[in-house]
């Protein structure tokens, strides 16, 4: 699971313009990084331009998934990840990024022209959200529940194994008890003939 790109675009008026972005291309070779960065920016721009206000979408292209969130203010957030990255976590992050961006940069700052703005939290987000289980509390709780479920299954299996062992012991003790009763009655008969009064 990996996030490659997080960006914020002005998508109204058209054409879309990248306002701020950050990427993590460490999984690519040094010589491929500039080409991959251009590809990610190009496709992000196109996807952001085609995203309507208040719309969320997930688009798969080659080995990437584009998670997009269009806002009514005329901007859109884009996250590019691999296909395994959880969509719920990506959209939660998009909401957070867009809220941070609009708090720091009102529409008047970026509505006209082609400004390049700074959003310091983007670098923190791309680092923190590389492991979605650590970043998202719901996913973290789900993982803990899954681990607990595995432990419970093992415990139940061991209890059932113990139960069958106990049942075997009970059957044996019942058999032993019957043999003991027979031994007692036979011993009593044997001793009764030899009783001296």
Sequence-ordered SSE layout with sheet pairings:
Layout (H helix, E strand, L loop, with lengths): L2 E8 L6 E7 L9 H17 L6 E6 L2 E7 L4 E7 L5 H18 L2 H4 L10 H8 L3 H4 L1 H56 L5
Antiparallel strand pairs: 1-2, 1-5, 3-4, 4-5
Order of helices and strands: EEHEEEHHHHH
Q: Give start-end ranges of low-pLDDT stretches.
A: none
Question: Which whole number gives the mean pLDDT?
Answer: 83
| Widest beta sheet: strand line-up | 2-1-5-4-3
Largest sheet: 5 strands, antiparallel
Helix content: 40-55%
Beta-strand portion reads: 15-25%
Number of strands: 5
End-to-end span in angstroms? 93 Å
Shape: rod-shaped
Number of helices: 6
**Cα radius of gyration in angstroms:** 34 Å
Structural class: alpha+beta
Word description of this protein:
The protein is of the alpha+beta class. It has 6 helices and 5 strands. Strands 2-1-5-4-3 form a 5-stranded antiparallel β-sheet, sandwiched between helices. The mean pLDDT is 83.
Quick recap of the structure?
With 197 residues, this protein is of the alpha+beta class.
Q: Can you tag this structure with a few keywords?
A:
197 residues; alpha+beta; 5-stranded antiparallel sheet; 6 helices
């Amino acid at each position: 699971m990996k996030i490659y790109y997080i960006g914020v675009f002005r998508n109204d008026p058209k054409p879309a313009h990248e306002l701020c972005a950050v990427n993590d291309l460490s999984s690519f070779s040094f010589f491929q990084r500039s080409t991959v960065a251009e590809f990610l920016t190009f496709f992000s721009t196109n996807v952001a331009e085609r995203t309507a206000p208040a719309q969320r979408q997930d688009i798969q292209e080659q080995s990437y998934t584009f998670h997009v969130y269009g806002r009514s203010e005329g901007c859109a957030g884009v996250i590019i990840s691999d296909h395994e990255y959880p969509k719920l976590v990506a959209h939660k992050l998009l909401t957070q990024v867009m809220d941070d961006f609009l708090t720091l940069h009102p529409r008047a700052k970026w509505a006209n022209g082609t400004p390049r703005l700074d959003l310091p939290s983007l670098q923190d987000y791309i680092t923190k959200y590389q492991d979605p289980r650590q970043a998202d509390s719901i996913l973290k709780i789900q993982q803990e529940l899954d681990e607990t479920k595995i432990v419970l299954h093992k415990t139940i299996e061991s209890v059932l194994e113990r139960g069958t062992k106990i049942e075997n012991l009970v059957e044996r003790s019942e058999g032993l008890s019957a043999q003991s009763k027979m031994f007692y009655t036979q011993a009593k008969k044997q001793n009764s003939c030899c009783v001296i009064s």
